[in-house]
Write a structure and sequence with these properties.
By secondary structure, this protein is an all-alpha fold. It has one domain. The strands form two sheets. It has a two-stranded antiparallel ribbon. A two-stranded antiparallel ribbon has the order 3-4. A hairpin with a 7-residue loop joins strand 3 and strand 4. The longest helix has 30 residues.
Length: 346
């Protein structure tokens, strides 16, 4: 049986390599089958672009997980079966929506059904940390609170998937932060960390083809899958222990949480459904103020990364290796934005 640390390293590498191999195939067949995103008054891209990036992300994660199982590492417990099955169902829901454009209310209903199934399989928030005494046992309220978190974060990632590279960058940063904290928190959850680090590897591979100008979009299949994975892994890896650290996912996922909250309140105040798409998200606001796509992504990714770093520091674990890794990721984002800007000016 391979050791857990080996599984983490292998998981990230294999997921990345699989993603780099699979995504170009998805791009090719999407074009052949006409499953592409066409520009309109709300969208800012030009030309027809594949909207099935979720296929590459999901396949990279699942095949990597299967490969690790075949290597005799079987990560039992921690609600893993619920996360894997629920994530696959959420991916399938998004894929059907990408192809057939489902009704928003019907899609929300199915998301609630999937989240309920996962709750019954043990992925749940049962108590809330109380700094002034005993923790608050949620009892019956564990269900609606868990449901709100899973469905809310799932849609929050979908909401910010509006410009090239943004959702993928936020998911990559968030999954790495959740993986690190899941390992070092007390009690630790190395199994949740394993799935989170696999997700980060797959998402990083997708980003290779999603930076501006994008060759492929995440689509609802990718956004719903990634959002679901982040929400459930944050529960099993950090929140269900009932420690002060349970509030850290709110910091790690601050950008999508603020965006979905602001967007929903704005739409409701106008008498509209919170699920009706518009062009007034945080990233749209930046574009309206003169930011380029690259600069908007760099700005929001930097804020997301700063929040992730603060969350990791709060856990009391940030050694020089993680500082170097985080700095390298930041430099990559910066270099990408600068190189794109130079090319456009040239």
């Amino acid at each position: 049986m391979i050791q857990l640390t080996q599984a983490h390293i292998l998981g990230a590498i294999i997921a990345y390599l699989l993603g780099v191999f699979i995504v170009p195939i998805v791009i090719y067949y999407s074009d052949k089958m006409g499953l592409v995103d066409v520009p309109n008054e709300r969208k800012i891209h030009k030309g027809k672009i594949s909207r099935l990036g979720g296929i590459g992300i999901w396949l990279a994660v699942m095949l990597t997980f299967l490969f690790l199982v075949l290597l005799s590492y079987y990560p039992k417990g921690q609600g893993l079966s619920g996360i894997i099955v629920g994530g696959s169902l959420m991916f399938l829901l998004g894929l059907i929506d990408d192809i057939f454009c489902l009704n928003a209310k019907f899609k929300l209903f199915l998301q609630i059904v999937i989240a309920t199934m996962v709750f019954l399989l043990g992925v749940r928030i049962d108590e809330v940390y109380n700094p002034f005494g005993s923790n608050f046992e949620l009892g019956f309220f564990a269900y609606p609170i868990t449901l709100l978190w899973i469905v809310g974060i799932t849609n929050a990632i979908n909401f910010i998937d509006g410009i090239d590279g943004l959702a993928g960058s936020v998911v990559t940063i968030g999954s790495v932060a959740i993986a690190i904290i899941s390992i070092v928190a007390t009690p630790s959850s190395p199994i949740s960390a394993l799935v989170a680090i696999i997700l980060s590897g797959a998402m990083l591979a997708f980003l290779t083809f999603n930076y501006n100008p994008a060759k492929i979009f995440m689509g609802d299949s990718g956004a719903l899958f990634a959002g679901f994975m982040l929400s459930t892994l944050s529960i099993t890896g950090i929140m269900d222990a009932g420690t002060p650290l349970m509030y850290l996912p709110f910091l790690i996922l601050a950008i999508p949480i603020l965006d979905v909250a602001y967007s929903s309140l704005r739409r409701i105040s106008k008498g509209k459904s919170p699920f009706v798409a518009d062009s007034e998200h945080i990233h749209h606001k930046l574009l309206h103020h003169g930011f380029s796509q690259d600069l908007a992504v760099l700005t929001l990714s930097s804020v997301s990364m700063a929040c992730a770093i603060i969350a990791i520091i709060i856990t009391g674990f940030l050694n020089r290796y993680f500082i170097i890794a985080i700095a390298l990721v930041f430099v990559l984002f910066l270099l990408n934005a600068v190189s794109k800007t130079i090319k456009k000016k040239a």
